[in-house]
Amino acid sequence: MFRVTSNSELVVAPVSDQSLHSTTSRQHFEEQLISHLNWFHERGRQVRFWWRDDDAVAPTPALETLLNLSEEFGIPLSLSVIPKYAEEELARRLKSTSAVHVLHHGWQHKNYQDKSREEKSSEFGWRRSAQDLTRELVEGKQTLQELFGSRFVPLFVPPWNRIAPPAVHLLQQQGGYGLSAFTWMNHFRMPHVQSHVDIIEWRKDKHFIGWDCARKRLDLELCRRRTNSTDPIGLLSHHLDHGNGCSNFLEVFFKLTSDHPAVRWLSSKELLNEARKNFNQASEVS
Ligand SMILES: [Zn+2]
Questions:
Q1: What share of the chain is helix, strand, coil (3-state, %, to 5)?
Q2: Please, which residues have CB within 8 angstroms of residue 172's CB and are 6 or more apart in sequence?
Q3: Residue 12 forms beta bridges with which residues?
Q4: What global pTM score does this model have?
Q5: Over 90: is that where the pLDDT of 205 sits?
Q6: What is the DSSP string of 89-119?
Q7: How far is the CA of 105 from the centre of ligand 1 (A)?
Q8: In angstroms, rounded to a whole number, what is the distance separating the alpha carbons of residues 117 and 132?
């Protein structure tokens, strides 16, 4: 059921297209999710979730769908915004939202690794100078602060979820930052708020992973939380790449979780503050 990618990320392999719109698969998904949540509720415990959506630069119909879902179900939404292309129109649109924060998504989402040598895409990888990376970090932060004010949360989301250790070191020097990527086994020594459940199948034509795959990915995370329920589960979406099925999944998932007593949806702002405290305490002990 599991496959290990070249990044040593442990993920559950997506299932075939057949289950994408299967009512039976959806019912199975709903039943297993509720069963998991009930397990926590029966023991007086809670599971914590947060929601990250990547690649925002401007208001679009696809983004509007997400903003409406966030509003309807009272789910905090963290948009990771690409600073170089962020439009004032987006900042204006977010002013009328009540639970949306903005995260720092690289500088221009450009790959600098060598594809001809089969290197994985990364903007903050090992092929760049410290000077260039630092300049982009500083400019990105300034841009987002000016555009989004208090909605900006200094949580850095490296494009393609990849960042090289020297770039992490430069990020630490910016002060107050946390890091958000995708389920690493080895965490860098800085506060982090990870994402875990990606709802898009990227390898073919970008579409919803399907109910069976979503069930298995959540099953893995919820089983892990039985021994460590404080670690929040990060739901990851990409509104510009949502093919048929993603919005429907989000609606079903939010409906099931938003009023379940064993679920707590948190904002990235709350989680970054918490991650900072935990990190400082751990640093004092070591
Ligand atoms: Zn991205």
A1: 45, 20, 35
A2: 190
A3: 2
A4: 0.90
A5: no
A6: HHHHHHTT-SSEEEEE--SS----S-GGGTP
A7: 7
A8: 23
Q: Indicate the pairing of strand 200-201 with strand 207-208.
A: antiparallel
The per-residue b/e assignment along 198-215, b for 16 or more CB within 10 angstroms, e otherwise, is bbbbeeeeebbbbbbbbb
- Token readout for 139 is 């400019």
Q: Tell how far the Cα of 122 is from the centroid of ligand 1, in angstroms.
A: 10
Expressed in angstroms and rounded, the spacing between residue 26 Cα and the centre of ligand 1 is 28
**Token output for 157:** 């989301």
Q: What is the spatial distance between Cα 238 and Cα 247, in angstroms, rounded to a whole number? A: 11
Instruction: Determine the residue type at 163.
Output: I
Q: Residue 132 contacts by C-beta under 8 Å, 6 or more apart in sequence? A: none
Residues 44-83 have pLDDT tens digits of: 999 999 999 999 999 999 999 999 999 999 999 999 999 9
Compute the distance from residue 236 Cα to the ligand 1 centre, in Å: 11
Tell me how far apart the alpha carbons of residues 174 and 235 are, in angstroms, rounded to a whole number.
27
Residue type, 135: R
Neighbouring residues of 165: CB distance < 8 A, sequence distance ≥ 6: 188
Residues pairing with 192 in the sheet: 179
The residue type of 125 is: G
How far apart CA 49 and CA 197 sit, in angstroms, is 11
Q: What is the pLDDT of residues 116-155, one digit of tens each?
A: 999 999 999 999 999 999 999 999 999 999 999 999 999 9
Category of 195 on φ-ψ map: left (φ > 0), alpha (ψ -120 to 50) or beta: beta
Is the domain 49-285 a CATH 3.20.20.370 member? yes
Å from CA of 219 to ligand 1 middle? 25
